[in-house]
Model the fold of this input.
Amino acid sequence: MTTPYQERKIPAPKLNYGDEPYFDAATQGKLMMKYCNDCKQYHHYPRALCPFCFSDKTEFKQVKGTGTVYSFSVTRTSGPVPYAIAYVTLDEGITMLTNIVDCDLDTIRCGQKVEVTFKPSEDGPAIPMFKLI
Amino acid sequence: MSIKDKAYIAGIFEHPARKIANMSLAQLHAECAKGALEDAGLTIHDVDGYYCSTDAPGSLGGINMIDYMGLTVKHSDSTNTGGSSYLYLVAHAAEAIAAGKCSVALITCAGFGRPGTIARDLDTAIPDTPFEMPYGPVTVNLYALAAMRHMYEFGTTSEQLAWVKVSASHHAQHNPNAYLKKVVTVEDVVNSPLIADPLHRMDCCVVTDGGGAVIVVSPEIAKSLKRPLVKLIGAGESPKGQMGGKIDITYTGAVRSGPIAFAEAGVKPSDIKYASIYDSFTITVVMTLEDLGFCKKGEGGKFVMDGNLISGVGKLPFNTDGGGMCNNHPVNRGGITKIIEAVRQLRGEAHPLVQVKNCDIALAHGTGGSLSTRHGSATLIMERG
Done:
């Protein structure tokens, strides 16, 4: 079985206050994660207050954009085209929901190495996704 | 303070329909309430507490339904944790009764689930939405992620997951109201179309219209009624989320709600004669059984094989009404039916072909929301007499 990746219409996310730097960076081809300057840990999704120590000394920092597939699911019937939703664990140690793109979706496996790429949303910012390396 | 021995389930009702036309949402809730009150031998005038979730009409908790049904209540709650809400609500009603805030609590669940997938209500103020919505999250793929990881870490197979559906179908054949009554095989399940890998169509629960209601009362009132006594002896609840990105989707919130409920009840998993386990998808059951301590972590796939969940065949009879897999999953919320079938078993009123012998202690567990992002887990333990 092969399931070639197909481009999918991605609705623009409706942002809450404070989300803009993440998506502005994505549009510039950078993956940013929130980092706590008190407990020295990254977290995701980004919060104003750190979910581990409740410090307000959080800031966006650029991460390497490489990681491994933690889990994935080729979603075959929920949209006009199949797509692969996934959790990717970044080399910095935190895991984010994403899509795996630009490959035969049937070749994706847990544990595979991936790197970030960016796909446009409809009239909105670019969205971080991952491709196999 | 504990709820143990302080509250009883005196009335249950599961609406017999699975497809409903020409009925308002408020009417459906009220008819479920009426059915449960009649089952208990109580009237609407006895009710002094009302509990519902967001399937009830209106955005003001239970206020619209309280007015519709002509109730005057002293206590109410409208917790929403998706399909597990009703296990939370029964526990909260029991807590209110134990605290003397009310003595006859009515819990309703009802709505129209068909047809097909209901669009996710994406409230833009939810902080996680912008970081998830672009990736196409839907209910089934958010459970599939957990199934895929479980297979990767523990070697769980599609054939093992299929046994959950097969077992439920063996029970559903005896339920005249079940949405799907046909007995299916492991091959039927694994050969059904893949919806979101590794979950097939037959790994998914049914989608139905309908509902149900439960009446929780004080010990004094329970003992004044003519129905078999079913006592609440333990309750636990716990949401689980993404933990700031330190994600581990190999377990559910049952790892917390279960031990709380078992400790309060003073029983252990081996004491449970019957278990209603929320079966939104086959993987939900496998992981919940592990997390509640019925088997070791990672061994849920082996545990459910070869009919181990089938009444009269295996060690842990589950979902003897046919569960969400085959019987009913009204308005995408299966928690109320989990409580109802556990009460039937403790009363000895399940179908004779699925009734568990000497069923003195039963458990009901709900998982509402999405297994791999955020969900609310709730466990109830009940005792006969």
Q: What stands out?
A: The mean pLDDT of chain B is 96. The CA atoms of residues 29 and 312 of chain B lie 34 Å apart.
